[in-house]
Each structure stands twice: as C-alpha cells, then as structure tokens.
Amino acid sequence: MAKSVLSEARFQNEEAAFAYVEAELWPNGPVCPHCENAGQAKIGRLTTRPGLYKCYAPACRKQFTVRIGTIFEDSHLALRLWLQAIHLLCSSKKGISTRQLQRMLGCGMKTAWHLGHRIRHAMAPGSTDQLGGFGKVVEADETELARSRKTKRPEGFRRKTHNPIVMSLVERGGPIRSITMDHKSAVGLVRKHVHPDSTLATDQAQHYKFVPVADHQAVDHSKFEWVRGIAHTNTLEGFFSVLKRGLVGIYQHIDKKHLDRYLAEFDFRQNTREKLGINDVQRSALAVQGMAGKRLMYRDSFVG
Ligand SMILES: [Zn+2]
Question: How many angstroms separate the alpha carbon of residue 66 from the centre of ligand 1?
Fold first, then answer.
C-alpha cells in the first residue's frame, strides 16, 4: 500500500514541522521578530523546546520561534497539526468542512473552526491590484449560491434570507478574484477590480453595459450563444461549478460575514491549480508562506 502523505515527518513530529516552516519563512536563516536581527552569529538555538531561538543582539536578548508574528502565533495547537490542516485544505478540490477537519485532527469543534478560517485568511492574496490591462481579457460573471431544487427541505421550510450572490473576475491566463456582491453593484465592483484598459467578457447581462473598460464583449445565452471568439465566460463557468459543489454542499451554513474567506480559499486553489504545474505539496508550501505577515490583518477583519 502506498504511504499516506500525512505520514511524512513534518506532519507527525514537532521538530520536523518547525524545520519545514522555518525553511519556508526564513529562507536565509532565522530572523529575530523583536529587533529584526538576521545576523546568524548573533542568533542561537535553544534546546528546551522545538523551534526555540535566542537573539544575542545586545539590546534585545529575547527568545523567539518562527510562529511569532504569523497567523500560527494565534493558537497553541501543535505546528504539525497546523501543517496537516493546511495540507487537507490545499489538497481537497471542493474544500473541507469543520466537522471533517475536527475528525481528521482529533481536535475540538471550535479549534477546527478557527483553524480553518485562519488558513483561509492566509490563502487570500496579499495584493488587490486591478486585474487585466491593455490587450488583456477579463471575464466577469455572477452566481447565486443556492441549494439545488432537488435538495429535500424540512416541511414548512421558509427561506429567511436571500442566497448570497458571488461575482468572480478572472484575467485570462491570470488570477481569479471572487467577491460577495451583497448590495454592491456590478459596475462598481468591475470599476474597482478591473483595469480600465481591459477587454471585458460577460454574458448578456445588461448591468455590465456601463462599465468603464476599453471594450466589452458579451455573449447572449438566451439566444443560445455561448462562445463568439474571445467573448465567452467559460473559465468562470468551470470555476463556478467547483465553487457551488463545494460551498453549497460542504459549507451548508455559511454566515455571510465569513463568505469572503471561503471565496479566498476557492480562489487560492484555482490560482494554484494542478494545470499550472503546482502539486498539492507545492500548494501547501504557498499557503504556509501566506501565514506570515497577515496576523494583524486577520485580527482586524475577524469579527465574531
Ligand atoms: Zn532580537
């Protein structure tokens, strides 16, 4: 029988887990998070617990681990379990539920929930630069996160709130970005996220008519027109099918305020998909790199 990926040392042994994360976050050796000292002669390793270092810069002399200043710092969970969770989220095409995470890691429900959201936050892109540009095509489309009509509902079921609507924008040959529409207008979102020199490709939806871009190509699905040259939204149709199978099926009770983080997770996997030559192990390494530098942002964005 083939050995499970999760039997590798970094998922089982705390020393190995630290060594792995240190290699990703400190490619040139340890850096003191207190004083930014990176002089390797002035940093020493302590043996009292895995991953512990001491800074010998005269004004500092503090201890540290690679967890400080990263999203890893916010929990007492063993680093090897963090790495397991990251790997599970990175290698499951449709995502993984809190309950499943809890079962696989043998931790509490609350821990699993927080863990999942911290990892999703780390998957969000650091840059929110506009997509597209001169000579580039950006597809825009929307989808409603509704349960299939075939899903059985309890008797007397009444929908209390509207289903969330998601807008996704993808630069052909480039990154994807998904946004909860809430009460925002399509024009406003495109204006914010798409470079005005781009060519925009949408379906016939009238509300894209006044979007300020260099060119707008639309296909009319009501006339059974799906592709006309560059005018199609095929990239997004494929993405939406994965998104809906994941979000509507697995994450059945998403609170709207957490939806953006789930979208970041699906965008991340799409932007680092197998087709681009990125495997599960490489995708996990990219997620680990995202754990650095986002700690405060996470605290700010996290309400409830
Ligand atoms: Zn220091």
Answer: 13
Residues 219-228 as b/e (b if ≥16 CB within 10 A, e otherwise) read beeeeeeeee
Instruction: Show the beta-strand stretches assigned E in the chain.
Output: 43-45, 53-55, 63-64, 137-144, 165-171, 176-180, 199-203, 215-219
Q: Residue 228 corresponds to which amino acid?
A: R
pTM of the model: 0.87
How much is the pLDDT for 168? 95
pLDDT tens, position by position, 81-101? 999 999 999 999 888 888 999
pLDDT tens profile 184-225: 788 889 999 999 999 998 886 677 877 878 888 877 766 666
What pLDDT, on the 0 to 100 scale, is given for residue 155?
A: 59
Q: Which tens digits make up the pLDDT trace of 276-303?
A: 999 999 999 999 999 987 765 555 555 4
**C-alpha–C-alpha distance, residues 216 and 198, integer Å:** 9
Ligand 1 centroid–CA 257 distance in Å is: 38
Cα(20) to ligand 1 centroid in Å equals: 22
Q: Which two tokens stand for residue 196?
A: 């005005």
CA of 115 to the centre of ligand 1 (A): 29
Determine the pLDDT at residue 148.
Answer: 61
Query: 50: CA distance to ligand 1 center in Å?
Result: 19
Calpha distance 276→140 (Å, rounded): 21
Going from the Cα of 68 to the center of ligand 1, the distance in angstroms, rounded, reads: 12
Residue 105: CA atoms inside 13 Å, Cβ hemisphere, count?
30
Distance 17 CA to ligand 1 centre (A): 23
Rounded distance from Cα 44 to ligand 1 centre (Å): 11
Measure the CA–CA gap between 58 and 56, rounded to whole angstroms.
6
